[in-house]
Amino acid sequence: MTLTVRNVRQDELFDFVDAISTSFLERPDVAKVVEEIRPYWDVGRIWAAFDGERMCGTYRTWASELSVPGGRQLPASAVTAVTVLPTHRRRGALRAMTAAEHAAIRQREEVFGLLYASEFTIYGRFGYGPACRQATWTLHTRDTGFLDSRPRGCVELVRPTEETRDQVKSLYEAWRVRQPGEMRRRDFRWDYDLGLRDPAWGEKWKGFLAFHRDEAGGLDGYARYSAKEKWVDRQPRNELIVNELHALNDEAYAGLWRFLGEVDLVATVKAEGRVPSERLPWLLTNNRAAVMSEVGEGLWVRIFDVPRALEARAYEREGRLVLGVVDREAASSPLRYELEVGAAGATCRPTDRSADLTIDVSALGAAYLGGTRLRDAVLASGWEAQRPGALAYADDLLRTADEPWCSTFF
Prior knowledge:
The protein has ten helices and 21 strands. The chain is an alpha+beta fold. A hairpin with a 2-residue loop joins strand 18 and strand 19. The longest helix is centred in the first third of the chain and has 16 residues, at 93-108.
């Protein structure tokens, strides 16, 4: 039977959540999950594939923004809950649901699609590229001290409340608009992140919240963390788990890490989903006490409006490039754009001029934020340089000194 794809109805949310949990090999209380998410999920952004009356595939998005180099934010569609039942693999369900949502993204005039991939090989064929990296950092606190013996400002522990939730949210908002690769979060998420609500799916957060204040008393950073108890031969070897740490300046960043590294009874501090270019090792008397592991891709980016995306971001060098972009979803492909970057900013317009370089839209999405080298991203999808040295030139034009990072998993 031919599969069909459409938006789900409110009365189909139980089947939708049940299909997600089945594909992800989990078994929550589906009725409680549906009751919990119903006020927050927009059914106009929820797609499902059907085999007759049986729901066999799921696909959902929510409206967000992506911060791009230079400090601007552009509208984006955050893609999540993408599954196909194990009984319906290899029948085109994913491709059909993706096509439906991509058409909706273009209609909503969102510039990007964003996602985290459960498997690396899935999304390149749909135009997504790995644009941000992430890593786990483990700090062995007993093997080092901190270089700055004169911390500026102070750290205070606070209870998660509605007031402190709003303060955390404000700090995050101030941070994310200046961090390329970061995205706007959904408002209701903060209640779960701070343990103010019991989730129907997953465990309740039970941890600690620390604020950093500058020397004038203003809030300029926060950390959420929890702990794992561990004793060896009656000696404390506890582990702190850093759920989140964001700072608006170097002093707050150093102060929060120093606080976490000096908590009594703790031997290791572990922080997942951080940026590989973390400055933590350079704060320490022993650089080797901070160990990076599990390095890999994080946020994937798909560009739907190439001129708007390229014109909005900042560049660290001037130049001009006619870029051909192969997009298999476009009516005609490759499309050609003339990008000019000068002291006053960038302009990007469709053009009939011959391309200097032609690449796949997935490679452009990977390199767009400046962290992934274009010369590497094109290896998976191919490229054609009509001008000698055009790939190296474009690679140099797009890259940025500071690495993009998305700390928001969804």
